């Protein structure tokens, strides 16, 4: 998937930013399909240090523009964000909480989005702050809340479908992935953590 994305970008037919915008818009469209009654409310978006977090910033902007009350929680310093994610971070017109220094609270809003890690997860999630915020997402999902994972539930290996050894991981009721499903969506722990799987095209 990473190779496909890079080939499309390198060929000049599409930019990473355009792919990210389509990914974020695809998640919002899938959300409305899966929970049609939820037209607006309060959303919490957990945004990690890479482009998965970048998708989260796009989602935050789109929901906010549609009248949602949005709480963005970031993990990692904005200066360290990859270019496309940084661009979308800068476009946010709402307060952002730093997940490293803000204690997580039980979420009793309407929509929780896991945009912490996607295909770039390289090792178990061991950071205590990340783990406790993901735990809030998981509890919200378990309580029947609208919980979405962007691309892949954070902590789940996209190839094997296993939760990385010792990693935090959160269940979602809906996982929205891009272009093609990954083996991990269907294998091992995948189905339990992904919930319903939507595959959205991003023009690749
Ligand atoms: N490419 C495209 O055009 C498109 C991409 N798209 C989106 O991008 C996603 C892939 O983005 P990505 O490659 O930035 O990886 P992502 O999962 O966001 O994180 C990587 C960062 O996390 C860090 N890190 C890793 N493990 C960690 C840990 N346990 N604990 C802490 N940190 C950890 C890692 O650090 P490092 O391992 O380098 O030290 C790195 O900084 C993809 O899933 C999709 O959602 C869509 O928009 C479609 C178009
Ligand atoms: K994710």
Automatic annotation (TrEMBL):
Cofactor binding note: Binds 1 potassium ion per subunit.
Transport among keywords: no
GO molecular function, one term: nucleotide binding
Residues given in the record as (6S)-NADPHX binding sites: 51-55, 118-124, 151
Cofactor: K(+)
Top EC class of this enzyme: isomerase
Keywords assigned: Isomerase, Metal-binding, NAD, NADP, Nucleotide-binding, Potassium
The YjeF N-terminal domain, residue ranges: 1-204
The reaction(s) this protein catalyses: (6R)-NADHX = (6S)-NADHX; (6R)-NADPHX = (6S)-NADPHX
Binding positions (K(+)): 52, 114, 154
Record-listed E.C. numbers: 5.1.99.6
Function according to Swiss-Prot or TrEMBL: Catalyzes the epimerization of the S- and R-forms of NAD(P)HX, a damaged form of NAD(P)H that is a result of enzymatic or heat-dependent hydration. This is a prerequisite for the S-specific NAD(P)H-hydrate dehydratase to allow the repair of both epimers of NAD(P)HX.
Family: Belongs to the NnrE/AIBP family.
Record-linked NCBIfam families: yjeF_nterm
Protein name: NAD(P)H-hydrate epimerase
Species of provenance: Roseinatronobacter ekhonensis
UniProt lineage: Bacteria, Pseudomonadati, Pseudomonadota, Alphaproteobacteria, Rhodobacterales
């Amino acid at each position: 998937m990473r190779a496909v994305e890079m080939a499309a970008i390198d060929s000049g037919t599409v930019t990473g930013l355009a792919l990210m915008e389509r990914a974020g818009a695809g998640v919002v469209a899938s959300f409305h399909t899966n929970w049609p009654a939820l037209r607006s409310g309060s959303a919490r978006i957990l945004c990690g240090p890479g482009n998965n977090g970048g998708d989260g910033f796009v989602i935050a902007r789109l929901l906010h523009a549609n009248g949602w009350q949005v709480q963005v929680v970031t993990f990692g310093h904005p200066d360290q964000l990859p270019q496309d994610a940084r661009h979308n971070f800068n476009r946010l017109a709402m307060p952002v909480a730093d997940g490293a220094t803000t204690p997580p609270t039980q979420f009793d809003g309407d929509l929780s989005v896991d945009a912490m890690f996607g295909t770039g997860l390289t090792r178990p999630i061991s950071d205590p702050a990340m783990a406790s915020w993901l735990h809030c997402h998981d509890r919200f999902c378990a309580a029947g809340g609208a919980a979405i994972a962007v691309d892949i539930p954070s902590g789940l290996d996209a190839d094997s479908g296993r939760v990385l050894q010792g990693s935090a991981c959160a269940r979602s009721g809906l996982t929205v992935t891009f272009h093609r499903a990954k083996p991990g969506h269907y294998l091992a722990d995948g189905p339990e953590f992904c919930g319903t799987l939507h595959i959205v095209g991003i023009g690749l």
